[in-house]
Amino acid sequence: MGQVLLDTTVVVDLLRGREGAAARLRALREAGDLPHVCAVTVEETARGLRPGEEDAVGRFLSGVGIAPLGRREGWVAGTWRRQFREHGRTLAQADCLIAAAALALGGRLATGNPRHFPMTELTVEEWPAGR
User: Fold this and answer.
1) Which DSSP string do the residues of 51-66 spell out, in sequence order?
2) How many CA atoms within 13 Å lie on the side-chain side of 50?
3) Which domain, by its residues, includes 54?
4) DSSP assignment, residue 122?
5) How many domains does the chain have?
6) Does residue 131 form part of some domain?
7) pLDDT digit string (tens) for 100-126?
């Protein structure tokens, strides 16, 4: 049984009822894998809510694990941002924190934006956004 962190793009697709994302989540659970989110994804999801979506989002979030975001994950995220910047690539703070939370769970991340997560320590699973 493994753990996988769901990026905000995946969560939004699930909440919008996109069948591709729903099928992948079902397959994930059937394989015995446990879906998680982190505080950054919770914040990004809450910020983008449409009127009347609060209950559905609350139910979804109560059915997934919450990955840690503490001192260690903050340090990892900051280190990645610095290292990539030194090589001319700017990474978003939110993406680095999400990636660090995924690493804390074992390194699997499901996202619709794999190019945002170039960290070699991660196994990035592309769940095409909008499907």
Assistant:
1) TT-HHHHHHHHHTSEE
2) 4
3) 3-126
4) S
5) 1
6) no
7) 999 999 989 999 999 999 999 999 999
CA 79 to chain centre: 19
Number of C-beta neighbours around residue 30 at 10 A: 8
What are 30-40's pLDDT values in tens digits? 999 999 999 99
Q: Is residue 85 part of a domain?
A: yes
| Cα(5)–Cα(106) distance, integer angstroms | 9
Coil, strand or helix at 10: helix
Amino acid 42 reads V
The CATH number of residue 114's host domain is 3.40.50.1010
Residue 113 tokens, joined: 């934006």
Unique residue bearing structure tokens 């989110």:
37
Q: Contact at 8 Å (CB) between 18 and 75?
A: no
